[in-house]
Amino acid sequence: MKNKIITLICLVLFGATLWPMFGLAQTGVDNQKFENLKLNSSPAFVLLGIEPDNIQRPTSPSKLVAGLQNAVIDGKLQPNVAFEITPYLLKSEKGNHQVKTDNQFDADAYLLSHPDFIQTFWRNLSVSLATSPTDKQTFGDLKPGTGLGIGIHTLIFDGKPNKRLKTWGDLFFKWSVIRKIKASFALASVSQVANPTAQFDVVFKEIDNDVKARKRFNPLSDQEYRFFCDSLRSRVAALQLTEVGTTLAGLKEWLKKLDDQYEQAQSIAIDSVNHNKNPLAKEGFMLDLAAGKALLFQDNTFEGAAGAKAALWITPSYRWNLDQQGQSIAMLDLMAVARLTWNNQEAGVDVANYFDTGAKIAYTLNKFTGSFEGVYRHASNTPAGQQKKYTYRATIGLNYKLSETVTFTFNFGTNFDGNTATYTDPKQMFAVGGLNFGLPFIQTGK
Amino acid sequence: MANQNPIHVNEEEVLTTFEISAADQAKQVCITIDADLNDVKWKLQTDTQVFLETEDLYTPSSPLPENLGVGVARDIAGKRLLIQTALVLVSTVGGVTGNLPVYNYTLTFTAGGLELAKFSAKSSDKNTTQFNSLSKFSLV
After folding, report:
1. SS3 sequence, A134-200?
2. Domain-located, residue B99
3. Is the distance from CB of A444 to CB of A24 less than 8 angstroms?
4. Would you say residue B8 lies in a domain?
5. What is the tens place of the pLDDT at every residue in A145-202?
6. Full residue range of the structural domain in which residue B120 is found
7. Is position B75 within any domain?
8. Is residue A116 within 8 Å of residue A109, measured between CB atoms?
9. Does B78 lie at the interface with A, CB-CB under 8 angstroms?
10. Chain A residue closest in CA terms to B56
11. pLDDT-derived band of residue A343, with 50, 70 and 90 as boundaries?
């Protein structure tokens, strides 16, 4: 009964994740970024034990990514499918205070170095589903059938904007402040500008309030913002606009020059961003949190549904952008994983739970990504007659982006031994190949 | 009545009169700004300053204002409304080499929810375009 309830919940979740797809089927194609088309290690695949990559660098979420791959299961080549969606993106970006229509840039998402935790969590929350014929070893005593993996993952820390984008974001924000100051004096009378720095402070306070109320983005740190405000105050004070009548004209002229300078500077900066091959990519530290559950429909029947395993894991990673000139996409990623897997011991999946820890290095150059990963698995218990409490996996992975929406993946190496009863068996090799699709979507318009 | 298009592209605003029928004097005047960029490879970063004389009507500056209240027509008669919008094209795919997309900027005035006037202007071929307008309200 319990398993059936879990299965029903899973099916409801499945349906709930599917319905927004139909609502989006209008016109236009949503571009997919390079890093978005990687579903290899979605939580759903990991739980089914058929993941090509066990560790994957946290990536920017996509509205939807689908994966189709072949894996060797019980000695046979079997097809597996999975997809992953991000509810936040499916609801369109209009919910964000920074964007009213889909054609407006979401500065919050790309430019804030220290965004709101809850926002980051919700923005990056993805739900994945995968199905596969089951492996006898991975699912122990359960009868063979169809496995359904359901997983979620999100980012706790989502990196920082690349230097070019950060430079432009800072300049644009400063320009916006200057534009507001300039506009606040545009229709002022002479008597209203006796103390210009006081008016500057009014604008600074207004902006502060809007930033705190999340009505406006501010990519500057508190220290940078204070320094910027102080420098403007001291510069206007240094103007020594004391003569009545010339004060307003002089101030307006000075503000116009400042406005022009910042307009020029941000224009050059955005030009540099737009020429960059990977303009919006984030870099630095990221931390991904994932969880999932695997169900097994024994004998491929609904009545045979059984909860097989559940897992919770974190993936910290760090990315270096190797091409600061932006002429190519060149990145180095270093990743690690720590994962706890609980097996349904009553159903005979295994007599132990697992703790995985591992690391991975990946190099990306334009359309190609090569990687190596190693993961050690420690079992909490061993079956009678067995001594070995560990197994491991070591794989080499290759990804090649065939088009904006299709990525070819290939992984080769040795996988974990399926359960603790087989830890002393000779290690088996495996090879997995497949395609990931970013499905075309349509701009929802205003 | 036909009001003159007050939008100046990449130029300083010039004062124009915006006439409102006396029949609408008790109605709330609002403005809405749109940009019809329709290219999935591009997004717009926006910044809009809206001042009624020295009163800042739109402190957040972004996104583009929608049905932003300016005031009741009879109360704002004789007052000047400054609208300065800057729009910056941000590429989502990068590697930009060709021409930049051109789009229309639209400024709509409404009173009591009904359209009073709609003005448009095309963006420049640069990554940043400024649209400036200065209108003085008049009841006729």
Report:
1. CCCCCCCCCCCEEEEEEEEEEEEEEEEECHHHHHHHHHHHHHHHHHHHHHHHHCCCHHHHCCHHHHH
2. yes
3. yes
4. no
5. 888 989 898 888 888 889 999 999 999 999 999 999 999 999 988 777 777 788 889 8
6. 28-139
7. yes
8. no
9. no
10. A184
11. very high
| Interface contacts (A, B; CB < 8 Å) | 134
3-state secondary structure of A437: strand
Chain A within 8 Å of B85 (Cβ-Cβ)?
A: no
What is the C-alpha separation between A278 and A170, in angstroms, rounded? 19
Which residues of chain A have a CB within 8 Å of the CB of B53? 187
What pLDDT sits at residue A82? 74
Domain boundary assignment for chain A: 2-94+120-158+289-438, 165-275
Return the ∠ at Cα A440 (arms to A438 and A444), rounded to 5°: 125
**For residue B39, which residues of chain A lie inside 8 Å, CB to CB?**
103
Residue type, A53: D
A2-94+120-158+289-438 to CATH, choices 2.40.160.40, 3.40.50.970, 3.40.1050.10, 2.60.120.10: 2.40.160.40
Give the number of domains in chain B. Answer: 1
Residue of A nearest to B35 (CA): A103
| Contact check, Cβ <8 Å, B127/A175 | no
Asked whether the bond before A115 is cis by omega within 30 degrees of 0, the reply is no
Interatomic CA distance for residues A226 and B11, integer angstroms: 31
pLDDT at B8 > cutoff 90: yes
Q: Measured between alpha carbons, how far is residue A380 from residues A50, A384, A426 in Å?
A: 22, 13, 21
The reply to whether B12 falls in a domain is no
Buried b (16+ CB within 10 A) or exposed e, A275-289: bbbbbbbbbbebebb
Confidence of residue A282 (pLDDT cuts 50, 70, 90): confident
Q: How does strand B15-20 pair with strand B128-139?
A: parallel
Token look-up 């190797």 returns A322
A194 touches chain B (CB under 8 A): no
The answer on pLDDT for A14 being more than 50 is: no
8 Å CB contact of B59 and A206: yes
**How many C-beta neighbours within 10 Å does residue A305 have?**
22
Total residues belonging to chain A? 446
State percent of chain A over pLDDT 70: 76
